[in-house]
From TrEMBL:
It comes from Advenella kashmirensis (strain DSM 17095 / LMG 22695 / WT001). This is Glycosyltransferase RgtA/B/C/D-like domain-containing protein. The lineage of its organism: Bacteria, Pseudomonadati, Pseudomonadota, Betaproteobacteria, Burkholderiales. The chain crosses the membrane at residues 12-33, 67-89, 101-119, 144-174, 186-207, 344-367, 374-395, 401-421. Keywords: Membrane, Transmembrane, Transmembrane helix.
Amino acid sequence: MLKTPFPGKPLCWWDLIPVLGFIVCALAFYPGIMTPDSLDQLAQANTQSFNDWHPPMMAWLWSGLNLVFPAASGFLFFDLFLLWFGLVCVRRSVEHRYAPFVYLLGFLPFVINLSGVIWKDVATAYALLWATIMMLQPPSRSRLALFSVFIFVAIGVRYNSLFSCLPLIVGYFWQSFARCQVSYKWARVLALSCAFFIAQLTCLNLFNYHFLNTTKGTPQIVIMVDDLTYMSTQMGHSLVPGVDLETVTRSSQVAVSDNIFRYGQGLDYEAVKASWKAVVREHPWMYLQFRGKVFLRFLGFSLAPPFQLHEPSYGYWLDHSYQSNQTNEIRHMLGLYVNSLAQLVPVFFTGALWLAVAAFTFCLSVASRLPYRTVTLSLSLSAGINLMSYVLVANAPFFRYYYWSIVAGSLAVLLLLIGFAQQRRQLAGNAVSQL
C-alpha cells in the first residue's frame, strides 16, 4: 500500500479505478466537446470581454486554465479532475469496505455521457459534488473555506444553482453544530445559513460587475419570447413585438424553445417585457397551462406536449460528438455504451425518474437513522429543488439540466446503501459482543 498525505488513509489498488476513468475520458473527449454556448464562453475567455448572457465566471476560469493546458482543453481537465478526484475523496471519507463502489458513479452512462462536454451545468454539478465532500469531513476552518469556494463557483457558473445550494448550506452548518450543546440550534443554523448565502450573492455581484466589469444582458428574453409565441398561436394574433403571426406560427411548429433565434432579427427587450407582463396578467391560466405542459415535457412525459414535441431530446448524448469525422475510437465506444443503455432503459435519462429518486432518498433519509443522514438529506433536497427550479423556465427536456440532480441522486443512493451496510455490520458486532 502507498502512503499519502491523507492521515491514516493508505491508497489501495482500487484507487487506480478513478485514474483509469480520468484517462479514458480525457482521451475520448479531448479537448472537450463544445457547443455554440461553449464556444461563446471560450470567445469571452480569449478576449477577456465578458457579458452575463452566460455566467462570466466560467469564461474567466477558462481563460486561466488555458494558460496551463493546450488547445482550449483547460476546462475539460478541470471538470474531469473535479469528478474523478472528487470520487476518490468521497471513497476516503466513507468508512466501509463497500466504499470503493462509489467509483462506479463516474462510469454510469448518465454521468459519464456529459463529463467531457464543456457546459456550465457539468461544472456546477462537480463544484456541488465537492461542496458535498466537505460535508463528509469533520468541520474545520479550512473546510469551511473550501466549502465556500465551491458554493461560490457553483452559483457563479450557473445562476439558478443558488436554489440547489440552499440545502447543502443548511446541512453544512447543521453538521457544524451537531455535537454542540447549544440552545436554539435551528435558529443559529438558519441565521448562519442566511448570512452565508447573502454573503455569497454579494461577493458574486462584486466579482462579476466590478472585478470582471461584465456587461449586463437580458437572457430572460428567451423564455419571455417562448411564452409569447405560444400564447400568440392560441389567441390568433402576434404578441411578439415586431414579428408577424405567420412567422410566429412557423417558428412554433419547429420547437417550443429558442423561438427568438429563429426570428432572425433583434427584438427590443423593453417591448417584449411589456407585452409579456400584460398578457400574463390578462391570461394567467393560459400561461400556467403552457408552463405546466412544458415542465411535464421537461421531466420526460410526452402526454399532450405543446407544439408536437415528439422528438426526443439530444441531451443525453450529442450524436455529432462520436459520429463526426473528428471523433476517435474511445469516444465512439463510449457513445455506443451510452446510447445502447439509453435505448434499453430510457427512463434513466428522464427528469421524472430523478425527481422520484430525490423524493425516495429524502423519505428514506428522514425515516432512517443511517450514517451520512444529513448528507443524504441535503443531496436529495438539492436534487429535487434543482429540477423544480425549472417549473417556470423549462424550455425542453435537455438532459444537461438534470445533471446535478443525477449526480446528487446517484451519490445519495450509494451513501444510503453504504450506510445501511455499515449499520448492519455495527449491529452484528454489538450482538456478538453481548454473547
